[in-house]
Amino acid sequence: MIDNIIKLARNNIKNLIPYQSARRIGGENGNLLLNANESPVSVLFKSKKKIFNRYPECQPNNLISSYANYVGLLCNQVLVTRGADEGIELLIKAFCEPGKDAIIYCPPTYDMYRVNAKIAGVEIKEIPTIKNTWQLDLSNIELNLNKVKLIYICNPNNPTGNIFSKKDLLFLLNITLGRSLVVIDEAYIEFSIKDSMTNHLKQYPNLVILRTLSKAFALAGIRCGFTLAHTEIIKILNKVISPYPISIPVCDIAVQSLEIDYIKLMQNRVLDSNNNRLWLINQLKNTACVEKVFESHANYVLVKFFIFEKVFKTLWEKGIILRNQNEKMNLKKCIRISIGTRLECLHLIKELKIFSKNNIVQGGFSEI
């Protein structure tokens, strides 16, 4: 009987490997959660709304107005979504014909671009970034634009932490004008705000930008994001979004977070995080079990370790939960570390120094 029910599922879903979020992988009972790129500190809010018997607005005017003001855009250029993740899904739903159109994504990067396309039955063209530099392989992208409706670029990129060349992004926008949408996921842009592409939305009608309150705003738990684009794209996305995507409490807290005092607090947290990142990178470079530390412009850092599996397991058992990236393209022996408070960073370095001391063999590390 169960087999008969399973047969009812679409074939692409039966074979789908779901996105492995931090909470799915586990470790939530750890002492030090450095695996999900969340803010290490919380922001306290009190709900101003007390009545919940009515449905919310599909697109709350006060929230859209607040975010449009924050990013310097018009209200009709903003769509509010359940995190940036819903924006990724809506774009595929609205612009890609299953079995006909394709997307491009550039690994190693955020897997939800690929997963959403697989769910929708849309072809995926995988164009890896250039190894070692992590920059876009523009010549290969240009050769593979046939049938492509969407190109997803995460900037700063997750998990590598690099910024893509603005010159390359503009080149990509020019060669796809009238053919494809270039979707730039700026989930981490507050940590490198000068690299935002929002100023180019007016010039390029094929540019779409994804944003979120999950990272710099320390509001991962409320799931609130935004899609920024030309007004005609926003109108199309409004046709496929669910009737009530943003709950009243989420809207209430999100609007509060966009008040000027809370924006200043966010900017101070970003400054602290960036300072902690620089401190952590310098410490990691002087830690024996570390093979390489990659430059980062976000609230995490990618690190290549000697005997990485033992490092990951040892820290996990001590309650320090990191994100294993070894299975991702061109990321062998790599672990992604979210930037915690200075005390959390100190604790991590202390344990890595102890690990290095206990595992060094004749001037190096044994892979056994």
Automatic annotation (TrEMBL):
Residues bearing PTM N6-(pyridoxal phosphate)lysine: 215
Q: Does the keyword Amino-acid biosynthesis apply?
A: yes
- Domain named Aminotransferase class I/classII large is located at 47-351
EC number from the UniProt entry: 2.6.1.9
Task: Name one matching Pfam family.
Answer: Aminotran_1_2
CDD domains in the record: AAT_like (cd00609)
- Keyword Amino-acid biosynthesis among UniProt keywords: yes
Signal peptide feature range: none
**So what does this thing catalyse?**
L-histidinol phosphate + 2-oxoglutarate = 3-(imidazol-4-yl)-2-oxopropyl phosphate + L-glutamate
A GO term, aspect molecular function:
histidinol-phosphate transaminase activity
Matching InterPro entries: Aminotrans_II_pyridoxalP_BS, Aminotransferase_I/II_large, HisP_aminotrans, PyrdxlP-dep_Trfase, PyrdxlP-dep_Trfase_major, PyrdxlP-dep_Trfase_small
Which keywords does UniProt give here?
Amino-acid biosynthesis, Aminotransferase, Histidine biosynthesis, Pyridoxal phosphate, Transferase
The family classification in the record reads:
Belongs to the class-II pyridoxal-phosphate-dependent aminotransferase family. Histidinol-phosphate aminotransferase subfamily.
Q: What is this protein called?
A: Histidinol-phosphate aminotransferase
